[in-house]
């Protein structure tokens, strides 16, 4: 068997070694608490589950769905954008349902990146932007992010490389938990326009924000629709990671190109899941306030424990993570291994998100309060 270069050349899975150590630790009988993955522990709102149950018993949902998503779902997404951001979208041309937003991030790349083309990706960042670029034969170009620039790229300092086609941004951010304000998005749109880039904003965490901060949409920036698409997901907003449904919105030409790739690769989202998504987007949103309160309280538990351990972090304003500096003299991977060995707590080493993640670990807030407090007590008693 001879695998394709695009697969052979994938970087080794950075968490493989950690996963192996976690399995070994567990089999030694340790009570391991994993703060490694960001997968909401809270349930999907009951009215959404009920909508799925009802739709699943209707045989008309059992057939192939439309490639372009149910018109009612596209309208529901547009209606949500209008209410949430004051942005009017044409449901027919500016909204594309996705089988989870990750699917769309990768397939949009296939629509734009030819072999040799480049995409600007945040470093540290969600690995899918860089890997998706490489799978399409393109070259990811890192935009280095650091605490000094608020984990937001400084567009004056980025050389726009030849053949760059896409610019990826993600706020509130995985893994850094940084947020963006409208002025930043205005600059990003200006940069994209000046360099003929499609600005791709991943807004998976737009509804998970704290201390009264409300995340903007890139599409609120003047002229954004000429140069930008935004990805949304029901995964984190409605605790639906297992359901696989999201959407892309924005520039109609980019949306059409994405749909063209998809019609050739997949056959859309189960109609019953689409009906549940309509119930989520158009129904009561009060679960969101409760969800934010749960994560905010957990954030405070983590930030306080880290402070006691001598690791000072500004409380992040969004996402489901705390991006924590490691104690001096440790590497990201070394500190993650040490926490596992000595506290039986799993965190994600920052270098899993790019070389500039060195010096940090990502702590996920998606475990039950008592387990999170237990994990933080262990860290406190080891380092305070
Ligand atoms: C969780 C997450 C998503 C959501 O992916 P889905 O495929 O919609 O579940 C997208 N982007 C980032 C950065 C994420 O962390």
Written description of the protein model:
The chain has 384 residues and is of the alpha/beta class. It is built from 14 helices and twelve strands. It has helices at 5-8, 16-27, 46-56, 71-85, 101-112, 128-135, 182-194, 224-227, 234-237, 252-265, 271-282, 286-308, 332-343, 369-383; strands at 33-34, 95-98, 118-123, 139-144, 164-170, 198-202, 228-233, 246-250, 321-325, 345-346, 348-349, 360-364. The strands form three sheets. The protein has a seven-stranded mixed sheet with strand order 2-8-7-6-5-3-4, sandwiched between helices. A three-stranded antiparallel sheet has the order 9-12-11. It has a two-stranded parallel sheet with strand order 1-10. Helix 5 crosses helix 6, helix 5 (101-112) crosses helix 10 (252-265) and helix 12 runs parallel beside helix 14 (369-383). The chain is globular and about 55 Å long. It starts with a helix and ends with a helix. The model has no long low-confidence stretch (mean pLDDT 96). Pyridoxal-5'-phosphate is lined by residues 38, 100-102, 126, 170, 174, 202, 204, 233, 235-236, 241, 246.
